[in-house]
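User: Working on a comparison across species. This one is Ribose-5-phosphate isomerase A from Staphylococcus canis. Can you predict its structure so I can line it up against the others?
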Amino acid sequence: MVDTKQLKLQTLEKAVAQIEDGMTLGIGTGSTIELLVPEIAKLIHDKGYHLKGVCTSERTEYQAKSLNIPVVHINDVLHIDLAIDGADEIDPHLNLIKGGGGALFREKVIDEFAERFVVLADETKLVDYLGQTFKLPVEVDRFNWYQVARKVEARFNTTVERRMVEDTPLITDNGNYILDCPFNEKVDPYEAHEFLIHLTGVLETGYFLDIADHAIVGTQAGVKTFDKINRD
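Assistant: Here's the predicted structure for Ribose-5-phosphate isomerase A from Staphylococcus canis:
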């Protein structure tokens, strides 16, 4: 059986094939993207591609700069040709849960802005419905995080956890907390997002709905690709 890292590596060739000379790229965050960034650097330094990267996290930006990939800020570009990012869950409609790396707000800004958004993942991320295997991350202001958590718990009959790194609350690149919200039953992600996004103190949710255009997934049977299916 092929391990998870090898499944992720399988997706890189098809991901790189999406990149064209002259593009401005949205570069995501997470373990799969960490494998992709050196491949982007090879296009620049070995093949002479002229590429620019807009990074979804400080961690990705550091890696990109260390490999001499030109990095620009989101506010300094007029468009992003292609965003490539990972996901924590992918449902049959190509809707996602993201935010396992704590970068969900910047990821959503860049992935929505891009003309085309491609997701890389291994087969363990494929689910029947969002929330099936992964807790929904929600980025919240530190001032009233606990009050937000109580409202989420009451609405969804769940126990919300503030994400910790050892004994310290995780602080996002935006200076906020992440609440991880498990769902005890299937919920409508569109309705859940609307409830959450209107709570004062919520910056963004980890629901990425109707954003992804294409998914490249490494499986035990090889690489499979999926295109967006419109919601019924």
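For your comparison, note: The radius of gyration is 18 Å.

User: Helpful, thanks.
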